[in-house]
Specification:
The structure is a homodimer. Chain A is mainly alpha-helical. Chain A has helices at 13-28, 35-42, 56-79, 87-103, 105-111, 122-143, 155-174, 185-201. In chain A, 59% of the residues lie in helices and 0% in strands. In chain A, helix 4 (87-103) packs across helix 5 (105-111) and helix 4 (87-103) packs antiparallel against helix 6 (122-143). The radius of gyration of chain A is 20 Å and the shape is globular. The termini of chain A are far apart. The interface between A and B is large, with 39 and 39 residues. Chain A binds a DNA duplex through residues 1, 9-10, 13, 34-36, 44-48, 50-52, 55-56.
Chain lengths: 223, 223
DNA sequence: CCGATATTTTGACGCTGTCAAGATAGTCTT
DNA sequence: AAGACTATCTTGACAGCGTCAAAATATCGG
């Protein structure tokens, strides 16, 4: 039975449905997302998903878990392209977050909705925790702490980084920041966000190396 | 005809539907929001709303406009409780934003969704612009500019303030910030947010009055 | 090869948003 | 004041949705 291969009528329909749901979300958005649409996309009847997912929130939880995994992967990759523990690494991690929001806007909207998917899904919880661990560890490296969330002085740093980046992403997707002429998403992501990160972290925290030529924020090899 | 008074069968059903929709959103949330539910709540047939709103997004646009107006009113009121042009005013404006998010979470989720309502609604656009003008003017006062959005140096300040406050609100509603024991919304709003505002603005901008005893951030008379 | 089991389909239910047609009230003109 | 007009609301219908129960089908263990 356990042959998740070519077979369809008997194969790995559960995985196929998750993949279909991912496509459905990407193409139709959260509003146009439909359980029956996922079933059609997977080539099965409208009631087939019920045997693998108790309801639509269970399926969306799997899609959200994928989203969190992708977010973790992107922020991690961006962050690894700058020297560990530098403010440039914070800026790069932030750029990764914004890139995810820009490239997967519907996933972004989904994972931060919370009322649309089953929050008790274990894979989702693990993926969410892993995604949130990336900025936490970036702050930890920056401030030389192994566990920033247990340091009362560092918690506001973590929450601040996270809030700036997340709020910026949300407003960007809303179109609120690109309304002025000549402002593209790339300038927002590559210029304005690093500037804000620097303003938040470069002062009042470390007084050393105040002028490390913040203009170049490390634009490394692969994305 | 123009008697928006007691009458029902012939009266001001349009306003009654908007009021019903506001209640429906507050009680049922955006997921449970239903056009037919609004009609029931207003005591009319299920198709009555069609004569006043072309579709559900048109009705939600009116509710969103109300939401923006309330947001503007609250941030304005909070901001007016601190001396003009001070960092305390920025912190108070931020507290107003968070208070709105906390007291009207479903309205907050609606107005920053954008795909659920008709964005071309004039009253909505006006209310949205008015709401966004509050933090812009707060930054203007703080930095002594009449039109901050036309100053390339101040735009990141406005966007930064806005991003921090908005992102913090969103994460707070998601429950992501109150997961640790002993952390309530009040401590988030009254302590952590002012701390973040100070970190972002107190350095690198004005170097004067660095130690104004930031513990007391003006907790004035009413609200 | 056959019975047991897992998987999928068919059909139904109540709900939704939207539209068309009919009913009803108020207003206006003369 | 009476009749026509118009705005307003109701009724009824349609397709699509999520979910459930029952029937049908395929796979596997023996």
């Amino acid at each position: 039975m356990r042959a998740p291969e070519n077979a369809y009528h008997h194969g790995d329909l559960r995985a196929a449905l998750i993949a279909a749901a991912d496509e459905e979300l990407s193409e139709n958005g959260l509003n146009g997302f439909t359980l029956r649409g996922c079933a059609r996309r997977a080539g099965v009847s409208h009631a087939a998903p019920a045997h693998h997912f108790k309801d639509i929130t269970a399926l969306l939880a799997e899609v959200a878990a994928n989203g969190f995994e992708r977010l973790a992967e992107i922020t991690e990759r961006f962050g690894s392209n700058a020297p560990l523990g530098t403010i440039e690494q914070l800026a790069e991690t932030a750029r990764g977050y914004l890139t995810f929001a820009s490239e997967y806007p519907h996933h972004f909207r989904l994972i931060f909705n919370g009322e649309r998917y089953d929050r008790t899904n274990p894979r989702l919880q693990a993926a969410g925790a892993a995604a949130f661990r990336v900025p936490v560890e970036a702050i930890g490296s920056y401030r030389g702490s192994a566990d920033p969330m247990s340091d009362p002085d560092l918690i506001p740093q973590v929450v601040g980084l996270w809030s700036i980046v997340h709020g910026f992403s949300d407003l960007m997707l809303l179109g609120q920041l690109t309304s002025r002429p000549g402002v593209t998403r790339r300038t927002l992501i590559d210029e304005m966000m690093p500037k804000m990160i620097r303003q938040f972290f470069e002062n009042g925290v470390r007084k050393q190396k105040p002028a490390s030529r913040p203009r170049s924020v490390a634009r490394p090899r692969r994305n």
